[in-house]
Every structure is written in structure tokens, then in C-alpha cells.
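Contributing: when you submit paired examples, paste them exactly as shown. First protein:
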Amino acid sequence: MTSITLSGLRKSFGATEVLKGVDLQIGAGEFTVILGPSGCGKSTLLRLVAGLENATGGRIRIGERDVSGLEPRDRGCAMVFQNYALYPHMSVAENIAYALRVDRAPRAERRRRAEEIARLVQLDGLLDRKPAELSGGQRQRVAMARAIIRAPRVFLFDEPLSNLDAELRVQMRHEVRRIHEEVGATSIFVTHDQVEAMTLADRLVVMRGGEIQQVGAPAEVYERPQTLYVAKFIGSPSMGTIRGTYCAGARALRLPDGQALCVGDRLPGFADGTDVVAAIRPEALRFAADGQGLRARLRFSEELGSARLHHFEVAGEAVPMVAADRRPLEQGAVAALDAPIADLHFFDPETGTRHPA
């Protein structure tokens, strides 16, 4: 198994800087997921590792080798793309074994290896079919098998599940993770889908605007976001945020509408009058039992089946709440919400960094 080290990695297209000095260490055998919105640079980063693009600056090490100047074929990587890119006139077996054919391996050897890999990705009995005779999930398995047969040190996945329907995506997530465990290669998986990211990753890398916002285990990123961007990007629905001014004497945030949000001793040493953004997960909010919580006005509700998602407005800001008790509320109704102090997260409204760091 092989580690990957990115040092000061930069990429510009003309005057547009897409990657702005990315530093990242990926451990040997690790399944790392790079998560971010379209245009954040995640696919460009993957293409730089593969050698499909040339970096503007910085270095890439795969294992002990600096591969920054090497051709793609010399880097020991195999890539699975969003589109399957299968040869339509070739059978499944021929598609899987194409790399061996290029290497002039004997026909019998190519067939034997194709059968071995087909069993691994559960394509038994389909080796003589053409791609047009396969489902979307089966085609994606062929693409993965084609990558596996090269015995790469590194697997690179560029949003490989985005063309599949919802049910098939769930199945293929399990397959991708199972195959990673069996093959054991170091894997980088790029996606904009946070469910994919949270369920697949050993480590999660959240990107924005060509920079890394946070790196950590999925649970760590979810439970302790380091920036306001990560707090609102991770989670569905995302965190609700409320801006206020810290009142040291009352140990509370004074909201623009005059309400007070109690923060206890969560902001030690903060100066009176400091502006703060408080954030809370929708599942952490509760209806106040005594009716003395934050006054919130209901915008609308959504039925989730097991719970109900209420979209409230507190001091002019949107604050979603997942309510397990499913009590009916009319649009425009006012409710009292309890925001437990232990569940609050605090951020600097100017820099977006976490308080305390």
C-alpha cells in the first residue's frame, strides 16, 4: 500500500487560479473522500495526481517517488471516471482486459485475469455481453474492473456514481467500499454528494474555492466543523445560524430582535460586545417545555416520514428543526425553541473560523 503527499499544489488556467497551494497527506491504504461544490477544484486535484493535468506549482509524491513530472502510465494510478468510457464494440471481458491487451499479454492470460476480476466485482456470467446489454450499475462495475486489473497502487474515483439512480447509488457505495477493502489500494474519491462522502470515507477533505477547509474523520467533521462554511455545507438539512452580540454579564448572545440566547461558559474570555455567529444542528433543537425558549416563527414544514422538518425564522434568520414528535403547526405560528448550550457551535462572523478554535 502507498501513501500520497501533496505539497503546495497549485493549478491555474490562464489568470484563474483553481488550486491555491493544497497540502494534503493521505495514508497508505486509506480511503479519502474529497468533498465540495462544483468548481471548488476537487476534480482538478484528482487529475493532477493522475498526471492528466500539469501542476502550476507544488509537488506530488506517491510512496517514496516524486511523480510531479512523470507521465500518467508511470504513476501507478488507475482512474474511474463519471462516464463509463467503455468500448461499445468490445465484450465485457475485452473491456476489462484492455490494459493487458495493450501490454501484449497472451489471450489466455487476459481471459483468466478478466474472469478473476469479474468475480470480485460480481460480473460473473456477463463477460461475453456488450456494454449496451448492461445496466448502469453493471457498466460502472466494468469500469472499476478495468481499473483493478492493472493492480494499481492508487485508485482515483471522479464522481463515479453521479449518473446512477438513487437506489443504485446506495448499492454501488457498498460495492465501492467492499472492493476497496478487498483490493487494499490507497483510494481518493471525489464527490459533491455529502452522503457518499460521509458513508465512504476513512478521512474527509472538504474543499472550497481551491482550498482545503477541513480534514478529518467524517464524524469529527460533522460534530466539530472548523469553519462556518463546513458547518453549513455538511449536514442535510444544514445547521441553522443565528447572529448575536456577546453579553459577558448575562453569558448570552443578544439577538437583533432583543432576544437572548444563553451560551453559559462556552465563550471564556470573550470581550463584551463581540459579534458571534451561533450554529446548531436541526436535530439538536427542541420545543421548549416551559414555553420560555427562543421565539421562532414557522415558515413551512416538510414531512420526512419518521420525523417532521420545520423551517423556522429566529431573529430574521432561517433555523431548521427536525422534530420527532411530529406535532402539527400552521404556517406563521410562533413556537418557543430550546437550543441546548452543549449543542451550540460558535464562529467569527468575519473570518468564519470556529470559536474557540
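Second protein:
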Amino acid sequence: MEEKKGIQTYKVVMLVILSVFLTFLFTSIGINRKNANGGIQQQATSFLDKYISNDKSDLDNKIEKCRRVIDKYFLGEINEEKLIDSAAKGYVAGLDDPYTEYISKEDMKAYTENIMGNFVGIGIYMVKNTEANLVEVLSPIKNSPAEQVGIQPGDLIKSVDGVQYTADDLNTMSSKIKGEEGTVVKLEIIRGNETLNFDITRTTIKVNQIEGEVLENNIGYIEIPSFDEDTAKDFKAKFEELQKQNIKSLIIDLRNNGGGIVNESLQIAKMIADKGSTLLYTVDKNNREKVEKSNNDPIIKMPIVILVNENSASASEILTGALKDLGKATIIGTKTYGKGVIQNVLTLDDGSGIKVTSEEYQTPNRNKINKVGIEPDETVELPETVKNILQVEKEEDTQLKKAIEKLK
């Protein structure tokens, strides 16, 4: 695209995926934490058991007929577990929703590691590119092996270690890209009209590497690459560190942040919004609405600029939309990605899972984000001389320059 300590976690995902991603992959998936004490898992399992046992008119009959043909004619070995996983995967894929998918038991471990923000891999956020039917790099993680060898946003991954994958194989591909630290993975990349090959050494990736510094005129700067476990805590610690250096205003850089855990972005919003302020509306398929409000007095009381671009998605858009609508920040950059739906991950009794789109969110002013994005208060493009938006030199960073100018 959540929380181990006895809390049932529902996870959301963008495809940068800050594919963090993001991966990172970044996923470009937003994630929503809720304390359900296992209730949803039990509901999902009992629902599926009831469906399979009581309604055999179409689904079971079709699978049974396929099995009879296979038993009678198929020449090779039959892997029953793989057949069942493939059937479940294809059934869910029939929804034609880019964010809803079946996750096998083997892939669930890798998926959970991505969300937690630490794993051994190459450091890329990935998303499905349904048009090309390939997995697309949303963005590489800063200072990761992928970035160091030259992997770029928009790269299409054709194969991993010689094995070709489609867009629907995102989770399987993610698990194959990971491996033991120090080993090498081979990626075949399509970039425009070129086919490129990269040998990348795996290492331990820390996804949510929040960075900060003090700029001119006592302006604080904090970059949030993705919203993973403990991002809000790390953000607060970094802010307090800069506050001790007498900052008077703050830039929050969400460019290329593909999203992550919704609750982490909301916790940051609560550090800035007034107590009682509405931060987010979520609406499910039955039009049931939930409202997220700030229940704290703000600890950040200074002018704020948020930087965004076309890769700012999901949880990034939740934070941006909330602070924009509440008048707590000026938004500078380019229009955001436009992922305004939330996914829950339901774990089945065999350890597999279904990530299902279950809610759409709206900003405090009731603005929808999905497939729309957020327009900045001031649109500022990077110069044409910038070839890689992940590696922008300060002298070329017109968006950062505009933010500094705004806060002077």
C-alpha cells in the first residue's frame, strides 16, 4: 500500500506506490487503522464460509467443471494449492478495481513488511499500470539501491530475474524483488522506447526516513517520504528538534509521497488543526459516513507551506486536503495524484487475505479526491532542465524557492 500490539489493522495503499511506494512499495496505497479486535477478520471468514457452503449454483459448479476437465486431460503435475490461489486471485480481479486484490498466504508476509516500513529489498514504490499491463515504478526511495542505479518514476518492470510479470502480479513481483541482504536482483525495465537492464544489490530499506533542516529566515523544512508505522512520532520528533533551533515557519514536503497509513497522516494533521476541527469524511458502499475530528490542541502554530506534485497520493492527499480546507497551510506545487479511496485488508483463516476498496474519503469541505486530485493554491512547475523529479538540485527547485519566498 497495520499495527501488531493486539490491534486489528486495516490497510489502505497509492502505486507511488512510495511504491515505497513506495513499496515502497510505495504502494500508492493509503492505510486505515481501526481497533476491531479481530472482528472484521472473523466476519470475512464466516461470510466466505457461508457463501461457499450455501451458494453452489454458479461459482462452485464452474470450478468443479474446470477441475473435471483438468483431471481428465491435463498432462502435467497438479498443484492444488496454486490452483485455489489462482482461482481466488482471478475471481477478485474480476471486480476491475486497481486497488482490490487477493493476496496469497506467501505474499501477505511481504505485504505486511512493506506497510511496516522496513524490509530487505531495493527500495521502490510500485503501482499497477493497467494500460500497459505491467507494474510501474511510482518512485524509488531516496538513497535506496534502486535510486542509486538510476531507476526512475514511470519505469515499467517487464521482468525480475528473467521471469516476466503483469500488472496483476504486483504482490508476487514485490516478494521476488525482496530477498537476502547483499544478494543481487536483475530487473528488465521499459523506459519509453528503450529496454534497460539493471543489477541491483538488496539491502535493508527504512521507508519512512523523515529528514529535516533549517533553511534561511528560520524556516523549518521536513520531508515525509511516506506514511508508515511511527511516521507521526518521527515527524513530531523532527519538528521539536527544529523548534529548538528557533524556526518561525515550516515547509512540509509531500512530493513523491505515495501515501501509506491513513491514521499516521491524521495524527500529523491533529498537531496542526484546531481542536474539534473536521479532518476527514469517509463514506462506505451503504452511504454510511464517518467523521474524523481533531481531539487535541495544536502543537504547531506557525505559517506552513505544503509542497505536492503529481506523485503525492492517498494519505498525502488526506493531510494536504485537510490543512488546505482548514486554512492551516498554503499548498504549492502541481496537482496531486488523485487516490481518494481507502482499502481494508481482511485476513482469511488460512493466512491469505483480500485487500478491498471499502470507503471513499472527502476533505473537510466535502471535496472528492479520487481521480480528481488536489489543485495547489499556487501552481509551480519545475524547470524543463530537471530530468528526474526525485533528484532536484536546490538551485533548480522552483517549488521549494516559491515556498521559501512565501514564508519570508
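If you have annotations for the second protein, write them as plain sentences, like these:
The domain at 207-407 is CATH 3.90.226.10 (2-enoyl-CoA Hydratase; Chain A, domain 1).
Residues 17 and 27 are 3 Å apart (CA to CA).
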